[in-house]
Amino acid sequence: MCEAFAGACAAAPEISRRALALLGEPVADPFWRVAREGVLERLSDVSCVQTSAGQLRKPGEVLLRGSGPLRRASELLPGELVNLSCGRSLCDAGDAGEERLLRRLGAETFSARHFAQCLAYQGGAWPRGWVAATWAEDVPSGRRIAALYNLLGFIMRPGDESSEAQTSELLLQLPSLPLFPLLSKGQSERPCAKLEEGPIFLGICSALTETWQLALGESGALRLLPPAVSSGLDSLGAQLLASLGVEAPSRAQLAEAALQRLLRLQPGAEAAPLAFSCWAALAVLRDLWAEPETEKEIRGLAAVRQALVSLGSCGSLEEAKKLMAGQGLGALLLAPAEKLQPPPTLRCPSVLGHLRQLPSDLVERIEAFLGLSAARPSPNLQTWPLAEGQDGQQRKLEALRWEAFFVDCLGAQPRRPADWRQERASPDLVFSLGQELGSDGPRSLWVSLLDEKAVPDAVFRYAVGRLEHSADRAWLAELPARATLKLRELFLNGLYLDLPQLGAAGRGAELQKRLAALGARARLDVEGLSAALQALLRGQCRSASHFARLYLNIDTLETTGAAGAAHGEDVEAALRECIFDPAVKEPMRADDCVWELPKNEVLTKCCHLTVLSDIYASFGDVQMKRYFERRGVPGQPHTAECYLRMRSNLMNAAEEFGKAWRRAEGNPEMAMVPLPSMAQPGGKISATDFLDQIWDALIFIYKGMSTLEGQERQALRPFSPVEAILVPLPGAGSMLEVARFHDGALFRRISVCESFWEVAPDLADSVAALWALSGFFPPELRPLFVECFGVREVVDAAALREGIQARINHGKRGGQSRGSGGFGFVAGDGRGRMVNELGLPEELLRALGGDTVTEADALAAAEEALASLRRRGRGGHSGSSDDEALAGATRGRKSAANRWSAPPAWGACAFVAAQQRRRRHSTAAAAAAVEQSAPPEIFRKDYQEPSCWIREARLTVRIFEQRTEVRSRLRLERAERSGEGLALDGEELRLKRVVLAGLELKDGEDYNVTGEKLVISTVALDAADAVEEDIWLETEVEIKPEENTQLSGLYYSGSMYCSQMEAQGFRRFTYYLDRPDVMSKFTSVRIEADEDRCPILLSNGNRIATGKLPEGRHFAEWSDPFAKPCYLFALVAGDLASIQDKFVTASGREVHLEVFAAREDKDQLWHAMRSLQHAMRWDEERFGLEYDLDIYNIVAVRDFNMGAMENKSLNVFNTSLTLAREDTATDDDYESIEGVIGHEYFHNWTGNRVTCRDWFQLTLKEGLTVYRDQEFSSDMGSRARKRIEDVRFLRSYQFPEDSGPMAHPIRPERCAARFLAATVYGKGAEVIRMYETLLGRDGFRKGMDLYFQRHDGTAVTCDDFRAAMQDANGRDLSQFERWYSQAGTPVLKAADTWDPEQGIYTLTLKQSVPATADDSGTLPMPIPVRLGLLDRATGKELVPDTVLELLEEEHSFELPVAGEEKPVPSLLRGFSAPVQLQYDYSDKDLALLAAFDTDSFNRWESMQRLGTKAVLDALAVSC
Ligand SMILES: [Zn+2]
């Protein structure tokens, strides 16, 4: 049988193939097994298979493609190559059985080894290997090479153990394979490099100029992978290359490559490219040198310098040539002139060796090297970095960078022309320092130089350094006066103070001459130096050493009696105002300073005085102290007030310490304690340091008090008789023991009249002896306590007993009595203090048989506590009744009997509140950060509709520990442009299945997963279209929320799963069209999870079903009837507690409200609930906007990287903006929670029902909603205060953004950079506010109504909003568009005249819109100016609120006014436009406005201006 069969097989390959199939699987039957073996044996000789190329081969000659990534590898390579390199042909097996059989007959499977052989092969059609050949074909995109790396990365991806043995072998071979095409000029001719031949770099060092590095790469000095290849890498490809060490070059590697290029090249070789690459090498060295981190000398740079120096000493060209032989730089300098091609922008007139005696031809060459000779720019140089795309300013700076490098680093001789006006080369090509200095205007070089941010430090140092040379200064002295103004500032900020000390007479005279030459009028007497000090202060100089030198100079003059030492009173007064502390902006007064305090951090921080020795002692202890003493600064604190403040700060610090201690988890000794320092709010100290120092600090204060005399001693009176003395609580010894024993409480406060210095002999063995003050304090303090404070000197048993009894009795009577010594009850200010509240030791009371605390006492204490809470001013926000608070206070008092009753440190609270406010504003920053991760350079104008819409979404989310499955079903509707496939966004998703219209799609055929897209082919879509009307696309993915640390998408946060989808988080959850204009109804969101771990399952909309599942799991299903973009989707699952309430809408619908948080936070949620209810009511009343669903949920999450997020009906908040309890939250906390709850709720209409078409329109929802929350807060609290707060925010955060380097309009045009939060949010809200100012509140409301009527349920643009405002009011608002398209803060100048005859007041308004970094335009803005006019004599309002509209650059408005005198204008009331107003108010005007203006904002503003003016006037001393 076998014979016949084999014959048949040999005759017809088809039979052979079928026979193979028939033989099938191995079987157990012994007969058939033997028969099968026999057949197989014969078959191996005769059978043949068809290869992929269609040829017939024996099984032993084929390679099976196999499956998985190596199959993809086999598909990537040409069959012929495999054939040649492995000696086998590729073949596809029909199924697993056939594959096994073929292997049995000698076939092999394509493996990593074969892959390596193919890649190593050179020959045939691939003389330099496959990679080189592929690269030659694919130079522009480099995609196939990148695909190869990606595939290799995929094959060798970490963690794939199944094929580890094979792939590690491949990995070992990679360095010896020619896999890496290098960047080069002649692309196709270059073979591919191997890694073992030297380092290969992927990309370039990001800190340095790109072009130069690429030039180094092209010349071969740096082995760079072409950018076309590196840009095509996916994460696995990049990972693979990184593990092979193919990464961007380090600084050291760059420097090495550049130096080698300069020093090792032979002269004469390839002259033109040589010059080019030498320049590139120099430029790289220059950039490295100019970078501030360069601390060490770049190795080898000395050799370059040496080469240059030696060159200067050569006598002839021959000599120079000999010297430079073998050195690349020499080759550059000495190459024939026509072969040198320095970039045209390097024409820098600094002259290397300009004054040296060189042969003229050598000079010419050197000048050529420096770009001094006239150049004929050749066309092929136009691609040099500076040739295009940079403005004149950048070119000048670039030239200055070169100059600094040559002169400062390489030691070239700077040029000091005798007459700077005469240039040798044509001026337009030449950069000249002298010329630049002479120019003026906002972009002058000196302005840039003074703004150190824009200029590299090295260049700045160089420019300043040049001023030290007398020749340079002589030249500079000839410059026009306006240039020297800037120069003088520069000079005073640095140079002058670095000059040698005064003292040596000759030098003093020299210095004076230099000063005069520069136009500075500072003289070298005390008066002159005092003027210099003032100039430093005015110039905002922040360097203490500069001040110190001037102080020292003055002291020297004063002490030695040198010229001008006897100065007048006014000079002395000026000097006293020039005490400088780097930590404080304003100059210090002598009263605010002290020379010295003991080295004790607690003390220093508790003392509100500036300790000058900390700043200045290092410059000369004795001399500095003497100088400051002359200015009235005391050696140590010397006023009672100061000591009392220190003591009270110390008490606060101890209170804060206690809180931090009790709050600390684990080891409280590691806690950080906030200190009430004025200079550094938020300054902290570790608990152990605090405990080490606090007692010494307290003793220092008491000792200081004891040294006071006379009036000051009298002023300590507040201490007596009701003030308390601080003594440590009982403990084993150290303060640490005390803190441990009393849970962070440190001191007991004993009333003065209840304390005693020592005990009489009859109490010597009693507990009372432990409380004698002499046991705590050194004997020298006895006079202070006894004589000054009135502490009883000695106490005996009878007196003690009597005193205590009296106190208890008086206490019960409510504090009418007044003790004066002894132990009676004391009530100095009329308020009763309770038994033991002052901290008299209970042990003491018990020991003496007195009553201890009674129930009535406790109740009274609680009342006191309640009153104290009320005094802190938060009754208005309190959600609990007095009874609750009373109970709480009683509980609190009992549990912490030893705590202080002092109020918390308000400074610290204010700081925390400010932080929270910042967090709230950081929402946009976070959204913008997501924007930033999108590919660079997306333009607003390039918006395109998607090729498909998603009309409905149904999700099933199954949460398991460590993995979550998301199944999504999307109903698609193809858009007009449906010729394209559908590209869904997805990041870090594991795709398991794609089903379209019921049919499972095939990877690589019907769909492709590339990078961060899942692309469904048009063919598949068309096919689905043909079958069904509704196309349903189903995908299944797996995600890992537990590993998601970006907090974008679904993530796990300690106790719960939580989502954040704005701006682009949904793509990290499932495949979707993640863009805001795709709005769909999420009709079903089913969440399944373990019931114990996640009893609460939440999503948007209404809950339509819940139920149990096997294995302790359960589910909840949600449905949201409103279409929404996916960034508003939310999911929360976890173990949460909640509070519930309801809200009845204006139309009578009942809404269930629920606020969730971790269980321990449940008691802190009521304020959030009340705020929500207020917001819902307010929006109905003000805008007629009702809530639209039956449920509204808020969840407070600890790890939430935004302030809060407005997901439809399921808001997620950071706990800091949700939780508030009376004993921990401040008024600011309460207000900011209310504001943010309002903000997110208001988004339901402005943001959710009507959303943004694309992220460039972010301000459409955010500006509008911020405006709405501002209005809400204004109506809930004080409108004026809110307005002032908002304007201050705008001025301090947004105005700087507007004039900064990243300025953009509120609606940005492109997304290359980060969106600026204060602009999009804050200025966006101002723009909305201007609509209201222009249209009136009713007109604005009409516009809002029309906006919702037109656009409800859609995604729109800022233009649509403007159109609604315009159409509803019949106004032309087209010019208003400029507020959306132009950045910058307009300057509004106002001037006025008064015609008493006619009674006409004329106001001329003139605006200028500054040019901004983004060049968005400077056309006149429409500016609404709200104003009123006040009578100059009486302050009465003559013209009430009027809104003028400035549309042109300048316009005069006439207002009829009755009156005798020119009225006083109150301009820009309520800050009616985000502009900078300039009007020349007199002090009197301002005072009048501050007193009488009807506009609260302008009253505040006038006070501010008045104050600022006063300070500035005081400082305006001429220099
Ligand atoms: Zn918002």
Automatic annotation (TrEMBL):
Q: Where is the Peptidase M1 alanyl aminopeptidase Ig-like fold domain?
A: 1384-1480
Residue span(s) of domain Peptidase M1 membrane alanine aminopeptidase: 1168-1379
Q: Which cofactor does it need?
A: Zn(2+)
Which InterPro entries does this chain map to?
Aminopeptidase_N-like_N, Aminopeptidase_N-like_N_sf, PepN_Ig-like_sf, Peptidase_M1, Peptidase_M1_dom, Peptidase_M1_pepN, Peptidase_M1_pepN_C, Peptidase_M1_pepN_C_sf
Q: Which GO terms describe its biological process?
A: proteolysis
The UniProt record lists the Peptidase M1 alanyl aminopeptidase C-terminal domain at: 1483-1515
Per the record, which residues fall in region Disordered?
Answer: 870-899
Instruction: Please give the Gene Ontology molecular function terms for this protein.
Output: aminopeptidase activity; metallopeptidase activity; zinc ion binding
> Which UniProt keywords are present, listed alphabetically?
Aminopeptidase, Hydrolase, Metal-binding, Metalloprotease, Protease, Zinc
SUPFAM superfamilies noted in UniProt: Leukotriene A4 hydrolase N-terminal domain, Metalloproteases ('zincins'), catalytic domain
Q: Do you know which Gene3D superfamilies this protein is assigned to? A: 2.60.40.1840, 3.30.2010.30, Neutral Protease Domain 2 (1.10.390.10), Peptidase M1, alanyl aminopeptidase, C-terminal domain (1.25.50.10), tricorn interacting facor f3 domain (2.60.40.1730)
**Residue ranges of every copy of the Aminopeptidase N-like N-terminal domain listed in the record:** 977-1128
Q: Does the keyword Cell division apply?
A: no
Do you know which NCBIfam families this protein is assigned to? pepN_proteo
PANTHER family from the UniProt entry: PUROMYCIN-SENSITIVE AMINOPEPTIDASE
Give the family from UniProt: Belongs to the peptidase M1 family.
User: What is the recorded name of this protein?
Assistant: Aminopeptidase N
Look up and give the organism this protein is from. Answer: Effrenium voratum
